User: Which sequence fits this backbone?
């Protein structure tokens, strides 16, 4: 295979298989070429990925050595994306009765979801995450997007046990905003004990739901290494029960009477943030 | 930018933006090169995508002309993927009480989900789909995967109305397998009337849930152009209420007493199938 063809084949492979460790002989076979040619191809691809702000190739040498594509969103690109998202969300027609913000269309756009996933995955890239956990329903697409960039599975916490998932572990928790007692369920065979977990959700107010997930995960001896929420609500009246999390946007004002919305960037973009 | 670099940039662009119509001047600007060089790059990429069974570039000339990457899974690759999936699912430890098959791990694997999405999107590529519709919860990741390849949004039908989605339309329907009356809800601002819809779900037995969705979509004057289910259950005792659908696998036997599972390829792989 000629270099030009190899570059297309290899680029496609890396974009489709983020964080997959692959040994060079695989590519030698795939492209019917020599190891040194592949090596030069990887140099080219790595430099382009870096200059485009898409990520980079991580290469290891020695026995078992190989290459891995690590997606990494460039800061300027993430900032621009979030600024545009905020501008879209600040449309007053998005205010719903009860002081909610209509975001369903954003969460229904696979391209948007993928970009948000890329941003979270860039931040959580070095945490050795084994599994992404979310709760049904709205966080699901975001969770899959993050998972696809980190090359790990998704486990979904449900509010009702399903017969098709076998035996399960459940806990009761108090929802932060409604103060109601709710139930959460996770199938027993969801993941191995002691896994490193990243929790992903679309929205956090007082954090009761996420706190419930943290408690449920404790039953599996899971280590919660990161919590990512697309939007947090700035709620001064309530004590937040979760304090280490990463948010992309922060809803500071939702004034139904005056049709005003205030949205800022979340703590992801703070320079000195504790996470 | 040199050809080798351009090929990486362009390949990444197409893989990340399936079915997005882009005019050549965009690439000329992006790569700081000439239109004729871009044209040659596109020839190379198109031929590699085709030979690798990933898809092809659709090019249009004239004013407003441009290029679009159409993902198309090669038949041999899809067949091999489904054969492996069937082999994985035929493990007797997957039989759950009540005659269900444990598939949660498969549905939790973003790479698997993406491949399944690619297979459906290849079949439904020419149907001018405007939106993918699924029902919470298990079909959601599949729906997003199909949507990402078709470059269309996802709308999720819920079983309970959510205050964060505004006013909604609901219908009651009889679940095929349990014969219970259930409710389905779709927010009013989900999509435009008269849209071309593709329904995606993980599992279909008698088809009551999908039939419910079809009826609910009728309230939006939507045209259901395709129905795709990952697994259908071969249920001779019941009359199927949905008869035009595309399935990837068919569960023919789930014998709990003898720990036997029988799975075949679905009608997607039939040569003379009415869809």
Assistant:
């Amino acid at each position: 295979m000629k270099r030009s063809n190899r570059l297309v084949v290899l680029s496609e492979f890396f974009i489709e298989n983020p964080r997959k460790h692959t040994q060079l002989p695989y590519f030698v076979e795939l492209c019917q070429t020599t190891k040194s040619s592949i090596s030069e191809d990887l140099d080219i691809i790595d430099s382009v990925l870096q200059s485009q702000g898409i990520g980079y190739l991580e290469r290891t040498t020695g026995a078992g050595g190989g290459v891995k594509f690590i997606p990494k969103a460039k800061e300027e690109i993430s900032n621009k994306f979030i600024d545009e998202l905020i501008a879209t969300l600040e449309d007053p027609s998005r205010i719903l009765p009860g002081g909610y913000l209509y975001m369903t269309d954003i969460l229904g756009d696979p391209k948007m979801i993928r970009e948000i996933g890329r941003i979270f995955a860039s931040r959580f890239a070095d945490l050795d995450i084994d599994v992404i956990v979310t709760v049904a329903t709205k966080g699901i697409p975001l969770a899959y997007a993050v998972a696809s960039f980190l090359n790990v599975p998704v486990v979904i916490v449900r509010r009702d046990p399903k017969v098709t998932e076998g035996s399960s572990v459940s806990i009761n928790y108090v929802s932060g905003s409604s103060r109601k007692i709710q139930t959460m369920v996770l199938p027993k065979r969801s993941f191995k004990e002691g896994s490193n977990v990243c929790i992903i959700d679309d929205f956090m107010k007082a954090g009761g739901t996420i706190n419930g997930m943290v408690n449920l995960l404790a039953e599996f001896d899971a280590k919660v290494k990161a919590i990512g929420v697309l939007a947090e609500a700035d709620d001064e009246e309530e004590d937040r029960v979760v304090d280490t999390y990463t948010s992309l946007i922060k809803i500071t004002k939702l004034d139904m009477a005056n049709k005003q919305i205030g949205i800022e960037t979340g703590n992801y973009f703070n320079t000195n943030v504790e996470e």
Remarks:
- Chain B has a mean pLDDT of 91.
- Chain B touches chain A through 54 residues (CB under 8 Å).
- The longest strand of chain B covers residues 223-233.
- The CA atoms of residues 46 and 57 of chain B lie 5 Å apart.
